[in-house]
Amino acid sequence: MRFGVNLRFDLKRLSDAQLAALLESAWERYETARTMARPYRLRSSARGPIHHPLAYPFLSILSYSVRPGSWSVEPAFLCSIGGLISSRTRAMMHMHLALCDIADVTDELRRRGTRRQGAV
C-alpha cells in the first residue's frame, strides 16, 4: 500500500468474490479505453493523496504520450476538461480512473491478506 488517506470504505463491505468481480470490471474498462485512446498511450498514473473516486479527477496526476518519444504530464482535472472536446483525451482519463480503481481494490485485497496472515 502507498501513502494516502484511504476513503474507500465501500470496499471493506464487499466480499472477496465481489472484489474480484469489481477488479475484473475495472480491467475491462481499462482495456476498452485503451483501445479508444490509440495512438495515445498512458505512461503513468498516480492516485494522489486522497483515495476516493471523487478525488481522483482533481488530485491525481496522469502522464501520457501523443507521439512516440513525447510525454505530457498533467493534473487529471485538466485532462477531464479536455475530454469534453476530445474523445481520445476522454479515453485517457477513463484509463487513468480505471487504474485508480484497480489500485484501490488491490490495496484492499492486500490488507485482507495481511490481516488473515496475522490471524493464522
Written overview of the protein:
This protein has 120 residues and is an alpha+beta fold. Helix content is 55%, strand content 16%. It has 4 helices and 5 strands, in the order βαββαββαα. A 3-stranded antiparallel sheet has the order 2-4-5. α1 (16-37) runs antiparallel to α4 and α3 (76-82) packs antiparallel against α4. The longest helix has 33 residues, at 87-119. The chain is elongated, with a radius of gyration of 15 Å. The mean pLDDT is 90.
Short description:
By secondary structure, the chain is an alpha+beta fold. The chain is about 55% helix and about 15% strand.
Secondary structural class: alpha+beta
Give the overall form: elongated
Poorly predicted runs of 5 or more residues? none
Strands of the biggest beta sheet: in what spatial order? Answer: 2-4-5
Describe the largest sheet. Answer: 3 strands, antiparallel
Percent range for helical residues? 55-70%
| Strand fraction | 15-25%
C-alpha termini separation: 21 Å
**Number of domain modules:** 1
Q: Give a count of the beta strands, DSSP E runs of length 2 or more.
A: 5
Order of helices and strands: EHEEHEEHH
Rg, nearest Å: 15 Å
Total count of helical runs of at least 4 residues: 4
- Summed over residues and divided by their number, the pLDDT gives a mean of 90
Which properties best describe this structure?
120 residues; alpha+beta; 16% strand
Topology:
Blueprint: E1 5-6, H1 16-37, E2 41-46, E3 50-51, H2 56-59, E4 61-65, E5 72-75, H3 76-82, H4 87-119
Parallel strand pairs: 1-3
Antiparallel strand pairs: 2-4, 4-5
Helix pairs in contact: 1-4, 3-4
